[in-house]
Amino acid sequence: MPSPNLHPMLNVAVKAARAAGAIINRAALDIESVRVSQKQVNDFVTEVDHASEQVVIETLLQAYPDHAIWAEESGQQHGRQGSDHVWIIDPLDGTTNFIHGFPVYCVSIALAVKGRVEQAVIFDPTRNDLFTATRGRGAYLNERRIRVSKRTELARCLISTGFPFRPGDNFQLYLRAMAEVMQRTAGLRRPGAAALDLAYVAAGYTDGFFETGLSPWDVAAGSLLVTEAGGLVGNFTGEPDFLEQKECVAGNPRVYGQLVSMLSKYSKFAAAGDKAAVRQGLPPAPGLGEPREADAAAAQDAPAAGTDQPADE
């Protein structure tokens, strides 16, 4: 039943997300029978992804036939492409978890208006958790207002991430970045669904998040949840225009600044000198190596870029 408190477009997105969640939950009862195919190395898609995406698109276009669709599996072939209103959809974020029966996955739906995300829904069907946000109206979990955590000391913070695993990913570089964060925090987690990772930052369950290789449908909805919950989101150098840059950092404002200080030199937008210094410290493949003290010191001295980013960007 539509909530009278939600923006009308958000109500439609909630309806779509719940319909997709019902399909996912039914399939989860008999995962062994779900057909799985591989898009590329370690990138799986199931018939459940497709069925979930179809019901989301149908629900959205039934209400708003003039809106455009940008979805993970079907791309930009549905709706009225060129519209100012674009629905950005990940029908099942965490497919690898899903096909193993590991209950960390979700449906992610965002509405961008003239390139800016205005509405967001992330639905976790295993826990029946519904995260929602409308720009300027705050972020909610099951209609209860949520805020990012208040922790400021990195040593006490829980940070989530994802591991690169596709052809072309610089695995050694990511290991260096991960080692640096790992040694300075209370813990690093890798749940396996970036949209939920961002929702958990918004809810204060984790204090920060970083990952590379993400697509817009992985981060669009979650990024609005984070900013509406009082947090910051950007790329590794702290720039707020990150949606299509394949690198994302999020956290409460203090943690965000500290993560950017550490991660900026690992960004593809880092200064040439920083990139060279990082490359020199990398071990020859396939050794893993330890981060050098010089790099750690440089990271501490780096400016907390992005800390003045307005919370509504």
TrEMBL record:
<dbReference type="GO" id="GO:0046854">
    <property type="term" value="P:phosphatidylinositol phosphate biosynthetic process"/>
</dbReference>
<dbReference type="InterPro" id="IPR020550">
    <property type="entry name" value="Inositol_monophosphatase_CS"/>
</dbReference>
<dbReference type="GO" id="GO:0008934">
    <property type="term" value="F:inositol monophosphate 1-phosphatase activity"/>
</dbReference>
<feature type="compositionally biased region" description="Low complexity">
    <location>
        <begin position="296"/>
        <end position="313"/>
    </location>
</feature>
<dbReference type="InterPro" id="IPR020583">
    <property type="entry name" value="Inositol_monoP_metal-BS"/>
</dbReference>
<dbReference type="InterPro" id="IPR000760">
    <property type="entry name" value="Inositol_monophosphatase-like"/>
</dbReference>
<dbReference type="GO" id="GO:0007165">
    <property type="term" value="P:signal transduction"/>
</dbReference>
<feature type="binding site">
    <location>
        <position position="92"/>
    </location>
    <ligand>
        <name>Mg(2+) 1</name>
    </ligand>
</feature>
<keyword id="KW-0479">Metal-binding</keyword>
<dbReference type="InterPro" id="IPR033942">
    <property type="entry name" value="IMPase"/>
</dbReference>
<dbReference type="InterPro" id="IPR022337">
    <property type="entry name" value="Inositol_monophosphatase_SuhB"/>
</dbReference>
<feature type="binding site">
    <location>
        <position position="218"/>
    </location>
    <ligand>
        <name>Mg(2+) 1</name>
    </ligand>
</feature>
<keyword id="KW-0460">Magnesium</keyword>
<feature type="binding site">
    <location>
        <position position="72"/>
    </location>
    <ligand>
        <name>Mg(2+) 1</name>
    </ligand>
</feature>
<dbReference type="Pfam" id="PF00459">
    <property type="entry name" value="Inositol_P"/>
</dbReference>
<comment type="similarity">
    <text>Belongs to the inositol monophosphatase superfamily.</text>
</comment>
<protein>
    <recommendedName>
        <fullName>Inositol-1-monophosphatase</fullName>
        <ecNumber>3.1.3.25</ecNumber>
    </recommendedName>
</protein>
<dbReference type="GO" id="GO:0006020">
    <property type="term" value="P:inositol metabolic process"/>
</dbReference>
<dbReference type="GO" id="GO:0046872">
    <property type="term" value="F:metal ion binding"/>
</dbReference>
<keyword id="KW-0378">Hydrolase</keyword>
<feature type="region of interest" description="Disordered">
    <location>
        <begin position="280"/>
        <end position="313"/>
    </location>
</feature>
<feature type="binding site">
    <location>
        <position position="93"/>
    </location>
    <ligand>
        <name>Mg(2+) 2</name>
    </ligand>
</feature>
<feature type="binding site">
    <location>
        <position position="90"/>
    </location>
    <ligand>
        <name>Mg(2+) 2</name>
    </ligand>
</feature>
